[in-house]
Amino acid sequence: MRKEYLQECPSLLRDYLGYIETVKGRSSKTVDEYFTDLRTFFRYMKRLRGLVLPSVPDSEISVQDIDLEFVRTITLNDVYEYINYAKNERGNSNKTLARKISSLRMFFRYLCERTHQLEHNPVQNLDTPRAKKTLPKYLTLEQSLELLNIAEKNTGEFAKRDYCMITLLLNCGLRRAELAGLNLEDVRPDWTLRVRGKGNKERILYLNTACQTAIQQYLQVRPVDGVKDKKALFLSRLKTRISLQGVHYIIKGYLKDVEGANGYSTHKLRHTAATLMYQHGHVDIRVLKDVLGHENLGTTEIYTHLSNEQIKKAVEDNPLSTVKPKSSK
User: Choosing from 99, 198, 203, 252, which is the catalytic residue?
Assistant: First the structure.
């Protein structure tokens, strides 16, 4: 949790955020999101209770005085009013509302079931708005090959580094933060890769021939002298660990030259890796879940979508597909 938040965080909320960061193993970014969601909720509740003047903007409403007695006054109707406010006045989508509701559920479950500070959970029967399901965007196999070809033709100082990063993203389905966080020691002698995912959860991936070759070629040119972060696998031009923003700009620069992929981001390569493994490699969905580091199988199931060609082939393969009425002969 960012230090600047601690000054405006009441002790009740600070204890909870400390719990989900240390015990539940959530990342600092996730903890920040929980804090922001809960701060927005309590700011609304103070306004609903008439504890702030109407002229005071939301950004100036302090939540430092929120305590257990205040939390005990919250009802399910209060929460529904907050959801209406978030949807109609803040313009939150169903997906954002679902996240805000999840933040509230976890907070009240902590108070009721973990620390037993509350006897009644006001959000126990709270419904979650259905988020519109959208299929992930990804590169086709042809576009993926084109991307690798473009990277291979690069003759710049960082060509081998860039090619290696793209190869790992396309073959291993890494998140951007996972790629940037890789250390030299994470590439192990048996050609497995240790990856630290969300919540610092580790998983081991097996590196295929393409990844092994790309890593070997990159390590031959990776700077040694003057390196500021000697542990980091991928380095910036300043010889520090490559940043998330650095990865973003590098990958985006290559993607703009791939036909039909302009505007795509690094995360689309993770979608691409998962889709190619599922559609072309026929990888079992449970195995794919472990490769991607998903907690729930439901998250992985978005990759079980079928391409138009597969749908067409499925219909054409129906044994009745060639049966015509006798009158048409």
Answer: 198
